[in-house]
Specification:
The structure holds two protein chains of two kinds.
Chain A (H helix, E strand, L loop, with lengths): L1 H25 L3 H22 L4 H24 L4 H23 L7 H6 L9 E4 L2 E5 H19 L1 H9 L1 H6 L4 H42 L3 H26 L3 H19 L5 H15 L1
Antiparallel strand pairs in A: 1-2
Chain B lengths: L1 H6 L4 E10 L2 E11 L4 E5 L6 H8 L7 E6 L2 E2 L7 E4 L13 H6 L3 H4 L7 H13 L15 H14 L4 E5 L7 H16 L3 E5 L6 H4 L2 E6 L1 E7 H4 L2 H8 L1 H4 L6 H10 L3
Parallel strand pairs in B: 3-8, 3-9, 6-7, 7-8
Antiparallel strand pairs in B: 1-2, 1-4, 4-5, 9-10
The chains are: A mainly alpha, B alpha/beta.
């Protein structure tokens, strides 16, 4: 049963992240995903301090708010003339540091474990179960991730054309009356949600890998956005399975192995993609040269 | 309301428009009224605010003050009447999509919040691609198109918007001669249908040939009117300043040559 819960949790994390990752990669906002994943920490801690419970949905709310604040601050600094990459660096390290301070101040009374926030522990997921009317409903993380995935699929599915046009040509999107800023913050809110739901299992640092790596690999494998999203999810799921298998064999960190597996799949796509791969490009160039001689 | 009724037949009326980035004014007190069914060129040196004028008219950037009316109403009530062709470099041509899909984006504004593009949108998009001579490239990934072909896809998308007033930001920049000819024929066709097209343009040599009216812009409107009346040596000199002065003694052919080179 443990295997099942771990694989299900990992699969849900991978699916949530892989879908959103496509839009982050296409909008050249990979580093914003990184920033959000770090700066949600103070949101989690503040939500905990205010509610006094480790209720996941309260934390989800707190973290989502902090995620949006992060994006807002980064944009504010950028518009006032700070370099784009510098403003990302300033905002997320500062917010993350606030989170670290808050955790260390509260450490005496609280069971928020900094290691757990940073690296996650997917192997412990099935211990923290949700009980309803006395019956065991399964791990809390699975419920929260399932809920997050549903929200992501519903929002992206409903507004697919808006997200697509905002990613490709925001000027036209604004000109035809699509509220570009609203969809920007909606996407960022979803990224925050996905990050927080995932942080318990894969940790705040590795969730970036799940956001960006499968989507980047999928980008190399197709020329259609719809297909890119499905391939990205498939790669995310494959890395979950592969990574878990390897981690059992090596007795190593599960989340670490999953992201490593994603990286291996990315490298394979980079080398072997029929359209954009290194090998295909070399072969094409050679056949072109032979034809011209 | 009386003011609106008198301007209802005017495709675009701008009054006292000013725009600033940070503290620097980019446009100052621009006022103009466009006549329906004309091709209008906007020319001026780099940094004169040509693209800014279009973006401010479309509400893409905030204005300091002034008003913009499209057929007598604020632009946000008239979006269905407006078509927009941004600069080609403004988008990522490596985006995973094909030519047909890009043209279908022109229909998104009419689909509202929830409807998805379907068979009808596809048929319209194919028709628009055919009009710009790109029907055979419908399934081509957009990064595999040449610069001229990409520009034609953008024009097809604007056609799919089926607007009455078009804004085009440098549609002729960096395109081959065949595409340039295709674009100008398309503009003539739009004009024939009674549509109004405002084009940011760089090539002084073709202004007289292409446009009914022309606006010379350098932060402020230097001159605006029928091309024959306004596109004069002294007005150009006033607009381009010192950069144009050295051309003064030369003949028209040489002017043509040099202005062609200055494009970009």
């Amino acid at each position: 049963m443990t295997d099942f819960w771990i694989l299900l949790t990992g699969g849900l994390v991978a699916s949530c992240c892989a879908i959103l990752g496509c839009f982050l990669v296409l909008r050249r906002m990979s580093m914003i995903g990184d920033a959000i994943s770090h700066s949600v920490l103070p949101g989690i801690v503040i939500a905990f301090m205010m509610s006094g419970s480790r209720d996941s949905f309260v934390m989800l709310l707190g973290a989502s708010v902090l995620g949006l604040i992060t994006v807002f601050l980064i944009q504010l600094f950028q518009q006032s003339g700070v370099q784009a990459d510098a403003s990302i660096g300033v905002v997320f390290t500062a917010l993350f540091a606030i989170g670290v301070v808050l955790v260390s101040l509260n450490l005496k009374h609280v069971d928020i474990d900094l290691d757990c926030v940073l690296y996650g522990e997917i192997a412990h997921v099935h211990w923290n179960t949700w009980e309803l009317h006395g019956s065991d409903m399964g791990p809390k993380a699975v419920w929260m991730l399932g809920f997050t995935l549903l929200v992501i699929i519903a929002v992206i599915g409903l507004f697919y054309k808006q997200f697509k046009l905002c990613a490709f040509d925001p000027a036209l999107a604004a000109a035809i009356g699509i509220p570009v800023a609203l969809f920007h913050y909606l996407l960022m809110g979803l990224v925050s949600m996905a990050t927080v739901s995932s942080f318990e299992s894969v940790g705040a640092i590795l969730v970036v890998g799940m956001l960006i790596i499968p989507a980047s690999a999928a980008y190399l494998l197709t020329d259609r956005l719809g297909a890119m999203i499905f391939i990205s999810v498939a790669i995310g799921l494959a890395s979950t399975g592969l990574g878990y298998g390897v981690s059992v064999v090596l007795d190593a960190s599960i989340a670490g192995c999953m992201v490593c597996a994603a990286a291996v799949l990315f490298i394979l796509a980079f080398l072997l993609s029929p359209s954009h791969g290194l090998l295909a490009r070399k072969l094409r160039r050679r056949s072109l040269r032979e034809r011209t001689i | 309301m009386t003011r609106q009724s008198t301007t209802a037949g005017v495709p675009l009326q701008i009054k006292g428009l000013s725009v600033a980035y940070q503290k620097k004014p980019v446009l100052r007190n621009v006022t103009l009224e466009v006549t329906e069914g004309e091709l209008i060129g906007i020319i001026g040196p780099n940094g004169a605010g040509k693209s800014t004028l279009i973006k401010a008219a479309l509400g893409l950037i905030p204005k300091l003050n002034g008003s913009v009316l499209v057929y007598g109403k604020p632009y946000n009530e008239q979006r269905q009447l407006i078509g927009y062709v941004p600069q080609r470099e403004s988008v990522d041509w490596d985006f995973p999509t094909n030519a047909l899909d890009v043209v279908m984006m022109g229909r998104y504004g009419r689909l509202g919040w929830f409807r998805r593009p379907g068979a009808k949108e596809k048929a319209i998009a194919l028709e628009c691609l055919a009009k710009v001579g790109m029907a055979e490239f419908a399934d081509r990934q957009i990064s595999q198109l040449s610069g001229g072909q990409q520009q034609r896809v953008f024009l097809a998308r604007a056609l799919a918007q089926d607007a009455k007033l078009y804004f085009m930001d440098e549609p002729f920049a960096g395109v081959d001669a065949a595409t340039e000819k295709a674009i100008i024929m398309l503009l003539q066709e739009l004009k024939g249908q009674g549509k109004t097209v405002i084009v940011v343009h760089h090539d002084l040599a073709t202004v007289k040939e292409y446009f009914d009216s022309v606006m010379l812009l350098n932060i402020e409107v230097q001159a605006f009117g029928k091309t024959g009346d306004v596109f004069t040596r002294s007005n150009l000199q006033q607009t381009y300043g010192g950069r144009f002065a050295f051309l003064d003694r030369q003949e028209d052919e040489e002017l043509t040559l040099l202005s062609g080179k200055g494009r970009g």
